[in-house]
Amino acid sequence: MEENVLKERVAQLEDHILKKCLWQFHSRAWDRERQNENILGKTMQILCGEPVAKETAEDRCYYADAVCLADAYKERFDWINTLNVAEIKEVMAALKERIDYVTITGSLNEELTVKQY
Fold this sequence. Notes:
Cofactor: iron-sulfur cluster
Mean pLDDT: 93
Strand content: under 5%
Number of helices: 4
Subunit structure: Hexamer of two alpha, two beta, and two delta chains.
Pfam families: AnfG_VnfG
Protein name: Nitrogenase iron-iron protein delta chain
């Protein structure tokens, strides 16, 4: 996928998360890492039509957020419905990288690194 198109699409998906998803506000970096991995990973699986783990309570919690996110993406962004599996995976990998940066590595929130949490 062309780099400019990828960046534009990731920006749209990121904007939705930042405006509509409360899960991005966990107070610990390790919570944010786990949530980003699981919610965005499961969202990608749903969008790709792949099986999604739902065995544990934690899996089901992440799955619920992923279903809402996948549904919103399909409804709000017509272009996502035209992508093949490889393209969806490319966009979602770039989105995860961006969300990790925004919510963890690039965050100025010093609480994220407090060892007592």
